[in-house]
Amino acid sequence: MRRKTKKALKQSALAAFIMASVLVVLSLASVDWGNKPTGNRHGGLSEDVMDYKPVVETYAEKFGVSDHVHVLLAMMMQESGGRGNDPMQASESYCGSRGCINNPDLSIKQGVRYFSRTLEAADGDLKLAIQSYNFGQGFIDYVHAHSGTYSQDAAIAFSQQMYKAAADKSRYSCLRDEAKQYDACYGDIYYVRDVLEYRSAVAND
Questions:
Q1: How far apart are CA 128 and CA 131, in angstroms?
Q2: Using CB atoms within 10 A of its CB, is residue 121 exposed (0-12), middle (13-18) or buried (19+)?
Q3: Are 101 and 107 in contact (CB under 8 A)?
Q4: What is the pTM of this model?
Q5: DSSP output for 26-65
């Protein structure tokens, strides 16, 4: 009887030890060891984007758009998340084709310069300037010839027209289901919406 009691006690002690070990492991797993978080920390903008803020500010001052630093950072977030050697995706406005910029500083310089030009051509219509950064300045001419100011409907109609007229539609990929239903696969018809959401978040951060 005493042997059975000792055996039962040993089994209980072993079970208690295992349970305690499991609790310790779970506790350690929940500790924040100071690792850099993988999510966004600045109103939806990534750390990669925020690292470029001083460069953006420098060129924004140079090209007379210092009031729109938050917009430019939001555009970078929408374009690339701050990753790669062309974070502003400015190659097409620089050389007419993709991939010719391989330097972040040149990318930001060109991106800010191009934005400043679209803002001027858009007569200060910020939404029109933002969408034209994505569509190209031909969108400004289109809007001025039709509605006169930016609208979501104008963006959809322009995208449809450009996509329909494209000789090689394989150049464009309809990443959004919303765009597919409109057959508006040229550029990003919701570029303004998403950029302004990022801008609003970081401005209020």
A1: 5
A2: middle
A3: yes
A4: 0.77
A5: HHHHTS---PPPSS--BTTB-HHHHHTHHHHHHHHHHTT-
DSSP letters spanning 140-166 = HHHHHHTTSS--HHHHHHHHHHHHHH-
Question: How many residues are there in the chain?
Answer: 205
Query: DSSP code of 99?
Result: T
pLDDT digits (tens, 9 = 90+) for 7-48: 544 555 545 544 444 333 333 333 332 333 334 445 589 999
Those residues whose C-beta lies under 8 Å from the C-beta of residue 76, and which sit 6 or more positions away, are 49, 52, 56, 82, 87, 88, 108, 111
The average confidence (pLDDT) of the chain is 83
Tokens matching residue 48: 């990669």
Amino acid, res. 62? K
Q: Say if CB 125 and CB 149 are below 8 A apart.
A: yes
Distances (CA, A) of 160 to 179, 186, 189: 9, 7, 10
**Alpha carbon of residue 121 to chain centroid:** 25
CATH number of 47-203: 1.10.530.10
Q: By CB neighbour count within 10 A (0-12 exposed, 13-18 middle, 19+ buried), where does 134 fall?
A: buried
| Distant-in-sequence, close-in-space partners of 49: CB < 8 Å, separation ≥ 6 | 42, 73, 76, 77, 81, 82, 87
